[in-house]
Amino acid sequence: MNILVTGGAGFIGSHIADACLDAGHRVIIVDNLSTGRIENVNPRAMFHNVDIRAKEMEKIFTGERIEVVVHQAAQMDVRKSVDDPSFDCSVNILGSINLLELSRRAGIRKFVFASTGGAIYGEQDYFPADEAHPLRPVSPYGISKLAVEKYLFFYHHQYGLQYIALRYANVYGPRQNPLGEAGVVAIFSRKLLAGERPVINGDGKQTRDYVFVQDVVRANMLAIQYPATDIFNVGTGCETTVNEIFESLRAAAGPRVEPIYGPAKQGEQFRSVLSHDHIRQAIDWRPEVPIGEGLQRTMEYFRQHQPGGQVSR
C-alpha cells in the first residue's frame, strides 16, 4: 500500500515509517522539520518537506496515490499549547481537517490518528482510565486532540471514512527530542549523560503511564490492518512517578547527579494511567517492553548519540 506518514521525520513517526517499509509498503513522509530531523528519515521513503496545512498537500495525495494516512504530525507540547493556543489550534485542528478533506476526496482506506490518552481525560476519576472515561482535557493540546476525534467521527458518519484513533500514553524511546520541553525521559537522559542537573517540575510525585515507542509502532501497524473504526488507548496500565524515572535513569547513566525541583507547570494533570483492555481484546495488542528495559535501551541510544557525535540509523 501507499502509506502517508505525517510527522515521519519525528520521534514516533520515523519509527512507524521504518516499520511500514519493513512490512513491504511504499511510504511517503510529510514533515516540515520544525521539530523532526532529516537524519530520522528513512532513505527508502519518499520525503516531502511540507507543512500539513499547506496547499501542496493536495498534489502529494494525488501524485503519490495515497491509500492510508498515519497522522503523527502535531504541535505536541502541552506547555506551548497553554502559552499559544491559537498556534496549537492551527496545527492540530486545521492541519488535521486539511488532511481529512484530502483523504475524503482521495477515498483512502484508513486514517490512523495519533491522539492523546494523557491530556484528553484530564484529572482522572478512576485508575486506569478506559476509553469510556469522561473527557475533560485541561490544556489546549488535549482539547485539540479531542476536537480532531470528533471531526473523525463526522467524516466517518458523513462520508464513510474508516479511522482508528490511538490515545497514546507517555511515549518514550530512541530518537525522542531531548532539547524540547516535552519528553522527560529524553531530557533527563541527555542531561544526566552530560553531567547536568535535570529540572523536575513540582515535587516529582506526579505519575504517568510510560509506553515504549516500539510498542506504539506495533499498535499503529495493527490499526492499519484493523477492518473497522474505533478508538483505543495505547498504554501499559502502570503508573510511574517522575522521581522514579529520574532514579532509574540516574542509575543507568552512572554519575551521581542531584535533580533541581522547580514549580509545577500549568495545564498538566497530576496522575495519568491508561487501561489497554479494549485494544487487547480487539486487535490483540499489549505492551511488551517493561519500563526498566525501555529506559535502559533509551539511555543506551543517547549514550551513542551524544551531541557532536556521529548520528547513525
Strand content: 15-25%
Output mean pLDDT: 95
Give a count of the beta strands, DSSP E runs of length 2 or more: 13
* Class per helix and strand makeup: alpha/beta
Instruction: Return Rg in Å.
Output: 19 Å
Biggest sheet, spatial arrangement of strands = 3-2-1-4-5-6-11
Number of contiguous helices: 10
Low-confidence runs: 308-313
Shape: globular
Order of helices and strands: EHEEHEHHEHEEHEEEHEEHEHH
Instruction: Report the sheet with the most strands, covering strand number, pairing sense and barrel closure.
Output: 7 strands, parallel
Distance between the termini: 24 Å
Helix content: 25-40%
Q: Please, could you describe this protein's structure?
A:
- The structure is a single chain.
- This protein is of the alpha/beta class and about 325 residues long.
- About 40% of the residues lie in helices and about 15% in strands.
- It has ten helices and 13 strands.
- α1 (about 10-20) packs across α7 (about 215-225).
- The radius of gyration is 19 Å and the shape is globular.
